[in-house]
Amino acid sequence: LPVLGGETFVLILALLVSVLGWIYLLVRAQKRWLVAQSLVVIFSLGSLALQLGKNRFDLLKFPVSRELKTQSPLEIAGKACRLKSAQLLATRWNLVARVDVIRTPGHPIRELFFPQGISEEAHPSLIKEARLSFNSEIHFYANNTFFSSVAPSAELYTESLPYSLLNRPRVLIIGPGGGTDIARARYKKAREIVAVEINPAVVQLMKNELYSLSDRVYEGVEIYQMDGRTYLESSSKQFDLINLVFADLYIPFYKSNIFMENYLYTLEAFIQYLSHLTPQGVLSITKMLGTLTTPTELLRIVATLLEGFKNLGISEPKNHIVVLGFGSEQASQYAGMVLAKKQPFSKSELELVRSYLHPPIFALYLPGDSQATNPFQKLILSPHPEKFYQTYPLQIFPTTDQRPFFYLFDKNLSLHKEMLRTFLLLTLILFLLPAGILLKQKGLAFHPVQLWFSGYFALLGFGYMFLQSVLVQRFNLYLGGALYSLSVVIGALLVFGGLGSLIAGKLSLKVQLAFFLLLSLGVLGYLFPFAPLERVFPLNLGARALVSLALLFPISLLVGIPFPLGLKLARERLGEGIEPYFFGLNAIFCTLAVIISLYISARFGLKSLFFGSAGAYLTALVSLLCLIKLKK
Predict the structure, then answer these.
(1) Dist CA 247 CA 90 (whole Å)
(2) In terms of CB atoms within 10 Å, which of 93, 239, 317, 442 comes out highest?
């Protein structure tokens, strides 16, 4: 993808498949279809030539044409890609997302974020900062979603929070994007700047096409291409400021039900952030607030942060947190900032914070200030946060690495339930009913042995997919991204599992059953940390992938044994030709298991999938033993 681009890659695959189809027809002497397939090959070749010559295909149809329903700052910024004067400067593909660089001449980001202009009643330094720091006309889009503007200068004026609280700080920026926060840290004469960016395309663009346009803002900065959590796991550095400004993953399935986890805002993440702060260091997180009556993202961050302080033994976290909001009364959505310290905020620091409380900035919580009556005040001052979570209309309890679904606010999991009902209905209509008709034609529809084997292969589908789903999460943080983990885990299960199936045919029945039992118990072994291998955190992705493959090898090898074993026994009991049915049945329940795993992990946590997988494999083993005993 980084070399060819998504559209070209798809067209090359189409050409290869059509050529293979043509060769197949030629070998099988299917002359009546050969002419039609030749036309398909010519069409595929012509499409590829057109793409290579004139770059005519755009799968994501940039710029987008849909209208926005709300007016949140990020969505206002999203209008930039639809301006008539918008220019596409560069595009890069990679495993994380497609990144487009857009220039909007005459329309700086200030105009997009502040369509009504900057109020003269605002803090004087904020006016100056808005004029200088929000002056960029170049913006990043990941899969047509705005996520960052490119810094117009290597140094950007700032006397605002959190930089005004610190003097020449050591700064860690998670998600630097276009380098605006790097430029602000440079203005404050930061002694050290470390930036961690998960999307390698952003770093490549900033160091190449945008090198001069960004005033070389990335130059001289310690840049790491990985997830912010992965970097913190591998580093022992201490920082005066850890800064996350709308940090997110921007994966290909943005705002969908797939890969909805986010490990940047879990309890374990906040413990890491606080542990990497110097004694007077500041953690600063800027995120969407939502509405003032029922805030979402920022309130959940505060809830998780309070739990993090508790885990670190801080008894009065209310003195360690400041929460600010910003936005106009005309806006339906607000943004906000959380500032946190390991030491209580001093009087002078709080006075400095209060000096910024001019429109569009307002206080949501300040230590010692009980004037505001809002959910933040109630949560932070509540002696029993659990009661607050129960009565709050949305699900905002602290997220953890076991339940990292930060954006899942629906207590009833309505979307999950609806999706589950839909898939169950589709499975019944499209798969199970036709399967029953086919079996009846063979006279096997109500054969007890056949039904018993059907249950066996259904259980294997559940066991395999539950295991695969949770292992993708298990190695997510270690590898530094969901898609890296997806590739490594599925690759290991397929290749090593195939090897296990190959070996299984050469083993005796008793040995295969013993390995089956080992598989059922071995699944639970991945619940626990792998010391010392898992503590090996090389910064190189390839090295971490090799360590992951070594850890995945044993369980992947065992996964390959139950399927061919069951297939062999089913063939002996039911006769030749039954194999395709069980292949299909297993595939059906594998598909259904993915949907069920989403609901289970959201409701009960990721660990429950390990128990579900082990239980499915163990039940399948018992059912197989019963079949073997009945045969005797």
Answers:
(1) 22
(2) 239
